[in-house]
Amino acid sequence: MQPYELPLTAAADAIRARQLSPVELADSVLERIAQVEPHLQAYVTVAAEHTRRAAREAENDIAAGRYRGPLHGIPMGLKDLIDVAGAATSAGSRVRAGHRAQADSTVAARLSAAGAILVGKTHTHEFAYGLTTPQTNNAWDTGRVAGGSSGGSAVAVAAGTATFTLGTDTGGSIRVPAALNGVVGLKPTYGLVPRNGVTSLSWSLDHVGSITRTVGDAALILTALAGHDPRDPASLTTPGTDYRPVSDADLTGLRVGVPRNHYFDHVDEEVEAAVRRAIDQLRALGARLVEVEIPMTRYIQATHWGLMVPEATAYHESTLRTVPELYQTDVRILLEAGELMPAGDYLRAQRSRTLMRQEWARMLQEVDLIVAPTVPATAVEAGQETITWADGTVEGVSDAYVRLSSPANITGVPSLSVPVGRDAAGLPIGMQLLGRPLGESVLLRVGQAYEQTQPARELAHTV
């Protein structure tokens, strides 16, 4: 096994035991980038010289006894919405040409303090306003979409060109590409991870989280990132928590909610079968399955769009008026549509969100978590605009991909996407676990318990 193939936890253990040096790991990742990046295009920029220099510094620090913890010397990619001092944050847009960040975002600063090494900035759908990331190819089939908007981040992890990455999630933008590329994606509770220095799409829906190879890796990163930051008005004040789950796979007594509506409606047969097999595995580990009714499902799409569209337009108000021609057509149309939305529609969406949060809180009193597909279909071919379901219903690709993930953004509950197999074409399938606010520890415990029953996952081998 080459160093670039190691999950974060394994790489960290090897570095701590002096069986692997940060320089060896960084060189391996950079060689992998040289091999596959021309085919995948996960990165906007790769800072190879910075990576090598930082790896040498990490090696020297560790040798001198200044070991900072499990992220020390680990190569990472950051979605190109996340500020790093002195580096461009293009947000995938010509609008940001020439931009340079003046300071580190909170998450970049916390990862740097923990010793993680930046490899580069990963591609996003323009300003995170889309679900495909058209610049980037799927790690398992380069003729298919990567998913979005954190598509570059997911592909980098799936292909071994970063040991872990960060993304952002406003309606599924971490979990969708994670599911489509066969990796782990965590959207934490709203406000748990600060967003200072991260370009916004929709302030009341935006989250920052990780994309990793394993659930244990996600827990390590969340432990480093979580914590109050007064510069983010939504930031929560929580006690310092070590989110690393115990290795015990016994789930006896845990109540797992299985939706009888919404989450298995208009879902590909192979996706449903894989997720239900994973649910059966949780039952075999001792969990008790409980049917649940997802509340207010007819209002999900309208609430999500009613919040996101006007908030995004407000953020872009100035540049939309001065340089509209610099936006991609699909994003400009959405931003212009936001200018036509009445204030009353936005207020009704906020009221709907309040009611939805109350109903979800009641539902989550009956169970400890909910399990469901992450996305209803695997990665579609690049350029495909719709999905036709078995009953003849036609749905837009972006609408389909966001449909099962957006409730966690509306309500702010944590959601973890875990790979649960592949379809007949070899494309990955994801299952999401949704929990109570600040219930990340439960999701990580269950996700790891399931993961331990499965064979070790391989990296994508498309190139």
UniProtKB/TrEMBL annotation:
Q: Which domain of life is it from?
A: Bacteria
Amidase domain: from which residue to which, for each copy?
25-444
PANTHER family associated with the record: AMIDASE AMID-RELATED, TRANSAMIDASE
Q: What is this protein called?
A: Amidase
- What taxonomic lineage is listed for the species of origin? Bacteria, Bacillati, Actinomycetota, Actinomycetes, Kitasatosporales
